[in-house]
Amino acid sequence: MRILLVADGRSVITRRWIDGLLALGYEVCLISTFPCHPLDGVKLAGILPVAFSALSGSQVKITGRKENRPAHKSPLTLLRPFLQIARYYLGPLTLPLYAAQFRQMIENAQPDLVHALRIPFEGMLASYLPDGLKLVISTWGNDLTLHARGSWLMAHYTHRALQRADALMSDTQRDIQLAKKWGLDLASPVLLLPGNGGIDLQEIERIHARLASPPDYLPADGPLIINPRGFRPGSVHQETFFQAIPLVLREFPSAQFVCTAMQGQVEAQNWVKKLGIEENVTLLPYLEQAALWDLFMRSQVYVSLSSHDGTPNTLLEAMACSAFPVCGDIDSIREWITNGENGFLVDPLDQEKAAMAIITALQNKQLRNKAASQNKKIIKKRAALAFVRRQMDQFYKQLLR
User: Is residue 253 domain-shared with residue 277, that is, in the same domain?
Assistant: First the structure.
């Protein structure tokens, strides 16, 4: 079977999904909505930089080192909040401009099935798919709770995409229900599945077995708290996280906070300087997967304070690596975390409650150990690599039958 993905070809999530499809024996084609390099085993059907994606930066992951020095403020960094708003209002207007090219690429690729890995803007582009071809759309993150409400045009194209979809994959039960309100046919097949293609528990165990001394950028002692979410305006509240750090340091002066995907981010550097927490915060770039898992295994607490989210891949990875989750108290996260049992759920806008949750987790090793055991069972049952791939395979084949 030949599956054509409409996705961000730079994305680690896209590449993991492709790995799963190739492992299952599928032939994979890709239409990337961002400029990207060719991928092994994948026919690149074309690049369609909808919604000004050609202006976006790289997502290449690299291993990191400590770097809290002031960064050069590039125009794109300074304009990021305004560019997001511009994409909401102007991005959808670019979709009709690429419709003819999209259909021609589909004609050339001759897929049996098309799968858009999220709604903005891949599912929106895929709504121009010619009749007669099956379309699967994935929703994850904040597709329906945030982006769909970004402008009337975003709402229109979200509705259009879900009306065209023949089936839906989602990483949250919440989004399955929301998708039906946004236009998905009530009779359409749906599948609840992590959007990252599954957690490789065997690889995590291999990394754990060969853990050596900590990287140079980590302190020799003191509890470790990791925040890997980077900056996601409107959904992840890093301002709450940074303001919670001094409150935690009152109880644990030696605590160290590691923030991946924040190196060179002006906003992060400003918070660190303003709060005087330079000695306790390490800002790192994007990390390779193995390096990130290594950090999760060394960390006592994982923090993700979001008000709009699906199932963060880093949450599942942290749960598999025994880091205790402290997350925003929202519907999608409640599907994985029971407050006070296998993590803490807090108001993502309340730095005092966030700090207290981190402090309580650091103080209670017994709770952390109990949560670690419970979380590994949850991941093995609902998000393990073999389980996810088996579900993917059955869903695709059922849809074509």
Answer: yes
Same domain assignment for residues 206 and 154: no
Whether 66 is covered by a domain: the verdict is no
Per-residue 3-state assignment (H helix, E strand, C coil) for the chain: CEEEEEECCCCHHHHHHHHHHHHCCCEEEEEECCCCCCCCCEEEEEECCHHHHHHCCCCCCCCCCCCCCCCCCCHHHHHHHHHHHHHHHHHHHHHHHHHHHHHHHHHHHCCCEEEECCHHHHHHHHCCCCCCCEEEEEECCCCCCCHHHCCHHHHHHHHHHHHHCCEEEECCHHHHHHHHHCCCCCCCCEEECCCCCCECHHHHHHHHHCCCCCCCCCCCCCCEEEECCCCCCCCECHHHHHHHHHHHHHHCCCCEEEECCCCCCHHHHHHHHHHCCHHHEEECCCCCHHHHHHHHHHCCEEEECECCCCCCHHHHHHHHCCCEEEEECCHHHHCCCCECCCEEEECCCCHHHHHHHHHHHHHCHHHHHHHHHHHHHHHHHHCEHHHHHHHHHHHHHHHHC
Residue 108 in domain: yes
Low pLDDT (below 50) residues in the chain:
58-74
Mark whether 295 and 163 lie in a shared domain: no
> What is the reported pLDDT for 80?
61
pLDDT digits (tens, 9 = 90+) for 175-200: 999 999 999 999 999 999 998 899 99
Task: Report the number of distinct structural domains present in the chain.
Answer: 2
Domain containing 236 equals 201-382
Residues 185 and 304 in one domain: no
Q: For residue 70, is it within any domain?
A: no
CATH number of the structural domain spanning residue 155: 3.40.50.2000
pLDDT digits (tens, 9 = 90+) for 353-382: 999 999 999 999 999 999 999 999 999 999
At residue 77, the pLDDT reads 54
Residue 68 within any structural domain of the chain = no
